[in-house]
């Protein structure tokens, strides 16, 4: 019997069926206590005050409410770990990415058809994410605005000053992330100049979310961010994400690297997996590479980062204080895979500094 009290969850969804199914699934886990449900934000607000839950599950799209407006108010006035329950549609992807930007910790995707059986297969994932959210760090919503202000003062100088310094064709930056990573990657890419070394990325996301995510990062970065296509050359000033639900690897082709889209089985339960990318970078870029693991649940990428370090690459992990979840970075740190442990706001500068060192 665990001495730790179960985490207290409030389920917010306009569908009575989904509220029932989610409550039943969560309640089966001894580490979770469902303290209540709410069908709309007015009821949810009252129940949050009365029940003081540790975690909220919140449907992204509700016909009678705007889940995002509710989330924004909540994160400003009463920051609480929130796991979004979203649909696997393009609109659902967009709304979910906005929710993560507002401070939601993570999300689970609701199956399109046969919700009952679909959610059943998600039971383990939903329970794991809810328990992880209970231990995660949430901040009041004012924080991103401050971070943005400092970025605005840093970015133009970096972009202007960097064009002379980089001989980027021989440097490759590889970054992996999971829970909390959609925002962490945005922060890092926002600080990158237009001629930064090429970056290859893996973020755990459902297949249908990858296009919306690449577009979102592209809007926020001076670099060109895109979904990688198989065989395309990896160029400076570009960042590449795996296309939906596939692994991204890099291969060497003479003096350059190319993207390889890999439809192989999941690795560490993930597809795309960070380990798949990092291993290929270790093998094909060696000491020309730089690796980073940002916030995320689990340990995907830890062994791959160690292989990169052993191949001569410089490596870092995001620190615990700025990570939403210190699972992946923590696992890499414990393995001895990281040269440095760096707060999120300093990751880009560190990667660029290493890229300039020959």
From TrEMBL:
Can you name one GO molecular function term for this protein?
Answer: protein-glutamine glutaminase activity
Q: State its location(s).
A: Cytoplasm
Give the EC number(s) under which this enzyme is classified: 3.1.1.61, 3.5.1.44
Location (main, coarse):
cytoplasm
Which GO CC terms are listed, alphabetically?
cytoplasm
Q: What PANTHER family does this protein map onto?
A: PROTEIN-GLUTAMATE METHYLESTERASE/PROTEIN-GLUTAMINE GLUTAMINASE, PROTEIN-GLUTAMATE METHYLESTERASE_PROTEIN-GLUTAMINE GLUTAMINASE
The protein's name is: Protein-glutamate methylesterase/protein-glutamine glutaminase
Q: Which organism is it from?
A: Stenotrophomonas acidaminiphila
């Amino acid at each position: 019997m665990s001495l730790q009290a179960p985490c207290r969850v409030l389920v917010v969804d306009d569908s009575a069926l989904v509220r029932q199914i989610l409550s039943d699934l969560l309640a089966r886990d001894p580490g979770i206590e469902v303290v209540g449900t709410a069908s709309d934000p007015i009821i949810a607000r009252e129940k949050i005050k009365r029940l003081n839950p540790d975690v909220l599950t919140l449907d992204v799209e509700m016909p009678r409410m705007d889940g995002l407006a509710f989330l924004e108010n909540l994160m400003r006035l009463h920051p609480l770990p929130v796991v979004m329950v979203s649909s696997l549609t393009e609109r659902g992807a967009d709304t979910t990415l906005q929710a993560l930007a507002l401070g939601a910790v993570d999300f689970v995707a609701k199956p399109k058809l046969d919700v009952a059986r679909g959610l059943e297969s998600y039971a383990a994932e939903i329970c794991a994410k809810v328990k992880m959210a209970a231990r995660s760090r949430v901040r009041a919503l004012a924080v991103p605005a401050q971070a943005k202000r400092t970025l605005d003062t840093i970015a133009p100088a970096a972009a202007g000053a960097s064009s002379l310094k980089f001989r980027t064709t021989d440097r490759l930056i590889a970054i992996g992330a999971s829970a909390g990573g959609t925002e962490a990657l945005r922060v890092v890419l926002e600080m990158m100049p237009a001629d930064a070394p090429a970056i290859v990325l893996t973020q755990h996301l459902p297949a249908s979310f990858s296009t919306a995510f690449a577009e979102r990062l592209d809007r926020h970065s001076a670099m060109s961010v895109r979904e990688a296509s198989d065989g395309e050359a990896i160029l400076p000033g570009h960042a590449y994400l795996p296309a939906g639900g596939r692994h991204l690897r890099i291969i060497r082709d003479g003096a350059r690297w190319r993207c390889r889209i890999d439809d192989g089985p999941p690795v560490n339960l993930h597809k795309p997996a960070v380990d798949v990318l990092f291993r290929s970078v270790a093998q094909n870029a060696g000491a020309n590479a730089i690796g980073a693991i940002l916030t995320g649940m689990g340990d995907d990428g830890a062994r791959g980062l160690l292989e990169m370090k052993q191949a001569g690459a410089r490596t870092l992990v995001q620190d615990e204080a700025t990570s939403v979840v210190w699972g992946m970075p923590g696992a890499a740190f414990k393995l001895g895979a990281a040269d440095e442990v760096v707060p999120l706001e300093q990751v880009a500068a560190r990667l660029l500094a290493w890229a300039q060192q020959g």
